[in-house]
Amino acid sequence: MTNMKALLHSLTLLxxxxxxADEPKPATAGPSASSLAALARMTPDELGxxxxxxxxxxxxxxxxxxxxxxxxxxxxTSKAAAAQRGPxxxxxxxxxxxxxxxxAKFKETLQKSREAMSQMSPTDRQxxxxxxxxxxxxxxxxxxxxxxxxxxxLLTLPIKxxxxxxxxxxxxxGKAYLIVNVASQCGYTGQYSGLEAIWKExxxxxxxxxxxxxxxxxxxxxxxxxxxxxxxxSSYNVTFPLTEKVTITSGSPHPLFAALxxxxxxxxxxxxxFLVSKNGAEIKKFEPDVEPSAAELKEAIEAALK
Length: 306
What we know:
- By secondary structure, the protein is α+β, with helices and mostly antiparallel strands.
- It is 52% helix and 9% strand.
- The protein has helices spanning 2-19, 26-29, 33-40, 44-56, 58-62, 66-81, 89-97, 100-112, 114-118, 122-148, 191-202, 225-236, 255-260, 295-305, and strands at residues 159-160, 166-167, 176-182, 207-213, 273-277, 283-286.
- It starts with a helix and ends with a helix.
């Protein structure tokens, strides 16, 4: 292989020199040092193509100025170098920046495209590989950005507390959350007492009870935030967290309840209860007529706190 390469290299130089035998300065008419260096790195097949091309265009080359000929040599040797089967330097750089999964995906793409690539020109082959590498890199960058900027979860959805300050369930730092849409003038309003008892019984174990006032069901929570807070404190000695008054079925639901009512869950009346796990992934719904002291609710709370 080495001898063949040397032979073809010599042949190429002979063709170059013979093409300009009638030039006044044949010694300077051939390829420049950089072009010769590029020729020396080529495979026999690549050298043969360059030699054939130069021989084919000998008459045209004779009419060029020396500067134009040198530009021609650089251009054609660059084209021939790009004809290698493997990726060029730029493509190799792109490949090396991929994850192991990305590299495997690229190799699989090349394997599947072998037949199509064999019909491509060298330039088209390089372009094809570059496009595939760029697409995989873009996909990986998008995934990385998504991982670094997680979408809000149910626990991180913003909601204001009863005093109008921004908060979220996550900031309450519970092991489980019992979220209840409450109202001051409902037949179930007496459940405030039971909710307070549950809060006192399990808060040290990590349960957070959250009362969320809402006026959507029968207009039974018409008061202002201050009126609601005063009512809960004076009538039921409520100490568990209360939020701002929200909408659930009238207009756009608050994002917290939009999340709670996904997957077919719904709120039909005041004091519907949602037990949410620490990571927000598990949600259990209990209807308004399930008292806070009910065994089924307590069992679920204790299981969520384990």
